[in-house]
């Protein structure tokens, strides 16, 4: 071989999906069509479902889109929605947690008994209740990750055990009332700024501003790294859409009582957990473990710790959700967390787009899914449908979501993207 002959280094491979950003709107339109054909439906079905639900119940009642009704929906979604956020983390591992309803109940019972009966400072009572919930999740995670007991069995045992503990904590009285004008009472009844419409607009505009800043920062970071970045025109369009949603929401809430505290806390937690999942190494480790345990272990990920920590997060979210439910009903009782609370929370995560098979989902799924479920429940209440029918309809919607997820995965596999 001639010494003058040189070997050129091969050009680095570029994911063709990244080039979509350089093609502008035409590229995104083509990518959207490709995703629809290959079963990558994302949030499209649930958004269309929300629009359809609103249209049907508004047509039947004429009051569904009333500002007071929509405000009530934002109050009611916080408790089960927070539990659903925790379920998203567990589902990303391809597992299930059946104990979260009981954890919500026993955590509320602990907070209620300490604050209302024992005179413990309410903030300290809340912290103890949340810590107890996280400890229960750690126990589940230990038996699952270290001992090897299936998550289904561990959390089923937890469901029974923590339900018994809930009854034990509440004692013969069977209930612990929320302190009037206390911290827990405010979780469901407080409106930020005491209903001042200016506060709602400030929050709405601040949210849009933060979204725009995040998009521009991401573009700058990707450009500096030599990676394809979203064009300014797309950022402007995205910000415009978010702005329209924020303006419509703020205008609607201000026609009622203003900005509900539960909505602020719920949205804040969804944003934070979404950031953790998408922008941190820990979040990527969760997706890696959900995608394949052995591959994750060979990549140097501490699989046991990821599993334990996920169950801790889910239990902590359930404990917080239990406090919101307690605030809403005015007390902690033996029934709190039972009934359809767990099923609605699991259904919310799945309906919102989180896969039951692991490795795919986001915490925004919890928000979208619980909006669908609560909208159905509220709409059926407005037309005075029996609760038994509500359960059947919610079950049918859940089944439809799981079928859609299964079909979507099968379509992606057949197209070589599964």
Structure description:
This protein is mostly helical and 418 residues long. It folds into two domains: 296 residues, Orthogonal Bundle (ABC transporter involved in vitamin B12 uptake, BtuC), CATH 1.10.3470; 61 residues. The chain contains 17 helices and four strands. The strands form two sheets. The chain has a two-stranded antiparallel ribbon. The longest helix is centred in the middle third of the chain and has 28 residues. The radius of gyration is 23 Å and the shape is globular. The two termini are 45 Å apart. This is Xylose transport system permease protein XylH. Its main location: membrane. One of its GO terms (molecular function) is transmembrane transporter activity. Pfam families: BPD_transp_2.
Supply the key terms.
2 domains, ABC transporter involved in vitamin B12 uptake, BtuC, 418 residues, two-stranded antiparallel ribbon, mainly alpha, 17 helices
Question: Helix/strand/pairing class, anyone?
Answer: mainly alpha
Q: Mean pLDDT score, rounded?
A: 85
Beta-strand content estimate: under 5%
Uncertain segments of ≥5 residues (pLDDT<50)?
11-15
Rounded to the nearest angstrom, the radius of gyration is 23 Å
Distance between the termini: 45 Å
CATH topology of the largest domain: ABC transporter involved in vitamin B12 uptake, BtuC
| SSE order, one letter for each helix or strand | HHHHHHHEHEHHEHHHHEHHH
Return the CATH class of the largest domain.
Answer: Mainly Alpha
User: Judging by the overall fold, what is the CATH architecture of the largest domain?
Assistant: Orthogonal Bundle
> What is the tally of beta strands?
4
The count of helical stretches stands at 17
Helicity, in percent? over 70%
| Morphology call | globular
Q: Could you say how many structural domains there are in total? A: 2
* Largest sheet properties: 2 strands, antiparallel
Largest sheet, spatial ordering of strands: 1-4
């Amino acid at each position: 071989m001639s010494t003058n002959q040189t070997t050129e280094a091969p050009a680095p491979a570029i994911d063709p999906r990244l080039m979509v950003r350089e093609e502008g709107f035409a590229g995104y339109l083509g990518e959207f069509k490709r995703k629809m054909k290959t079963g990558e439906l994302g949030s499209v079905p649930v958004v269309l479902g929300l629009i359809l639900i609103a249209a049907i119940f508004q047509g039947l009642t004429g009051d569904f889109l009333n500002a007071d009704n929509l405000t009530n929906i934002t109050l009611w979604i916080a408790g089960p929605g927070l539990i659903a956020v925790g379920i998203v983390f567990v589902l990303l591992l391809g597992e299930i947690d059946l104990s979260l309803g009981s954890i919500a109940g026993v955590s509320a019972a602990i907070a209620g008994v300490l604050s209302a009966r024992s005179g413990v400072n309410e903030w300290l009572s809340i912290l103890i209740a949340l810590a107890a919930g996280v400890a229960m999740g750690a126990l589940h995670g230990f038996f699952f990750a270290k001992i090897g007991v299936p998550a289904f069995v561990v959390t089923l045992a937890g469901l029974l055990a923590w339900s018994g503990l809930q009854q034990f904590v509440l004692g013969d009285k069977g209930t612990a009332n929320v302190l009037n004008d206390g911290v827990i009472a405010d979780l469901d009844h407080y409106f930020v700024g005491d209903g001042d419409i200016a506060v709602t607009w400030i929050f709405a505009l601040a949210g849009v501003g933060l979204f725009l800043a995040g998009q521009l920062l991401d573009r700058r970071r990707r450009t500096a790294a030599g990676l394809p970045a979203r064009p300014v025109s797309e950022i402007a369009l995205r910000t415009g859409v978010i702005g329209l949603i924020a303006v419509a929401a703020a205008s609607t809430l201000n026609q009622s009582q203003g900005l509900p505290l539960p909505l602020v806390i719920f949205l804040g937690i969804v944003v934070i957990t979404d950031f953790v999942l998408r922008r941190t190494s820990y979040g990527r480790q969760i997706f890696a473990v959900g995608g394949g345990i052995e591959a994750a272990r060979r990549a140097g990920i501490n699989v046991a710790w990821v599993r334990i920590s996920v169950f801790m997060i889910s239990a902590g979210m359930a404990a917080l959700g239990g406090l919101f439910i307690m605030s809403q009903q005015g007390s902690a009782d033996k029934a709190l967390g039972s009934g359809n609370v767990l099923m609605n929370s699991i259904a919310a995560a799945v309906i919102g787009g989180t896969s039951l098979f692991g490795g795919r989902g986001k915490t925004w799924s919890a928000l979208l899914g619980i909006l669908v479920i609560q909208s159905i429940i509220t709409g059926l209440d407005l037309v005075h449908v029996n609760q038994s029918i509500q359960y059947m309809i919610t079950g049918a919607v859940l089944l439809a979501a799981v079928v859609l997820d299964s079909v979507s995965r099968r379509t992606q596999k057949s197209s070589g993207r599964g």
